Each structure stands twice: as C-alpha cells, then as structure tokens.
Predict the structure.
Amino acid sequence: MQIPSNPQAQDINQPQKVGNQTSGTNTQEQKQNLAQTQTAHTTSQTQNANLEAQLKQTLLNFLHNLASHTQSKTEILDMLKSTNLFKDFSNASSLLKSLLSQIQTNPALQKFQTPLQNFILNIENLSAENLKQNIANSGVFLESKLFQNQKHDITTDMKALLLNIKQELEVNPNSDKELLRQVDKMLIQIDYYQLLSLASNSQMVYLPFDWDMLDEGDLSFYKDEEEFVCNIDLSLKDFGKLKVSLRLIENKNLNISFFIEDEELKELLRQNFHTLKLNLLKQGLSVSNLSLKELEDTKAKINPYAQSSNLSINLDIRA
C-alpha cells in the first residue's frame, strides 16, 4: 500500500533546511570578518613596527651625519623640523597616559606608575619649581648626567625610567608587546629632542603637559642680547591659535604681545588686561608694554615674533 505524502510535513521541513543554510552562511561570514579583522590588526602592527624601525634608523643616520660632519647642523635641523615622520609621535601626554593605563594592569610594573605620573604637568597649577624639576628629569639630559657620574640624579629621569621598564618587558617572554611598543615610542621621542638639541646648539625638552583647553603648543625660551624672551605658541580647543611673546628687560620690565585669531578671546583679554598687570606686579614684574595684535598667517614669511637667539630652551606641549 502506498502511503500518501504529507504536504504539511514537507512545508515544515523545507524552512528548516533553508534556516540551517542561512545559519551556516552567517557563521562563515563571521569567520571571514574575524579573519579580516585579525589580518588588518596584524597589518597595522607590522606597519607600526616598520615605522618605528624607520624612525630609529632615521635618528641614527642623522646622529652619524652630525658626528661625521657629513651634514651641517643647520641642514639636519631643517630636515628634522620639516619631516612628517615624527608628527604622530609628538603627543607626549597621550603617549604617557596610554602607557600609564597599560601599566596599571601589570602587577610587575606598577612600581613605575607613580614616578611616571609625576612627569605629567598640569599647566593650570604650573610653578617655577616643578617646571625646573621636570626639565631636569625630562630624559634629554640622561647621557650628560651619566657622563658627569651623577648617578643620584638618574633615579627620577624619564629616559632612565623608560629604559628600566623596557628591560623588564624584554626579559619576560609573556610581556605585553603593545606596552613595549608604547615605551619604544616615548624613547624615540626623547631621542628626537636630544638630536634637535645637538643640531640647534640649544636645549629642547620633552615634557607632557595636561590642560583640558589645550590641543597642542610650544614654548621656547632664549636670551637675546640683554633680554630674556619667552615665545608661546598654542592651539586651543575653543579659541584656535594663540601666540604670545614675552620679553623681560633688566629682569623686571616685561613687554607682552598677544597674537590672536579668535575675536571672542581678544575681547576676553582686553577685559582682563588690568588683572593681568596686577598679578604680574605681585610677582615683582612691571609690565611696560601690553599689546594685542592680529595673528598673521602661519605661512607668511614674517614670524609674529623674532627667533634670533644665543640661548634657547624649547618645551613641546601636547595635551
């Protein structure tokens, strides 16, 4: 006897088959996406490693050319300042904060946490004493300290601290490779500023600053004949670019020029000029001239303030 087919059973079985095929397809797509993500991550890591190796080799080549007089200091300085290779490595605060975040998850390295935290300067609470201390411990003076046998001065030196962290990571086969990469990036930055100092016959210091309003900026100090000059070049999150030139004459008379692109910031400064003068007077400084000027195009040939100097200290600020 022939058993008739059950159309309902066929209807039920058919979707189940289709459903299994769909599930299998989704699983395959997930595997492919995961493989692509892993490949992209590996490619990114390889590219980063290649870039860091290129940066290290570039610094070594510059240093060799400087020592062998293959290139002049002026040529090397121009090349260092114009190259884009180091642009992504100049965010000192971000690098340090990232390093601190990763160290917190590693019990063997938590002893380095407090010393590293001490290197982040809060610009709103900046004092002459802690600025001086951080300049001395910025890492760029390590070799000169060792040369002068100042071993007691290197325990809080940034470069010495980073080298100690790197050593601990390298002897541990299970160490975090990303953490090691962050340490290498900071060491490359310090080496970069050391080479800049040699090429410019000045002191350029690697310092991480912390200020919510700040995107990035530079401070430079130098002596020009009988004047001490401080140039401040900032990029503010809310107000754009701000340049300030301060010239100290006879250690007491101060000339200040502001170069601003934001109209709101200009008005805020105008309203607070009197308060600024009073606060400086409390510090023993008499403001002989206070001016507010238009910010010139950064591509213009004439700089808002002169840069001729025989003594210079440059501080890189990256929030």
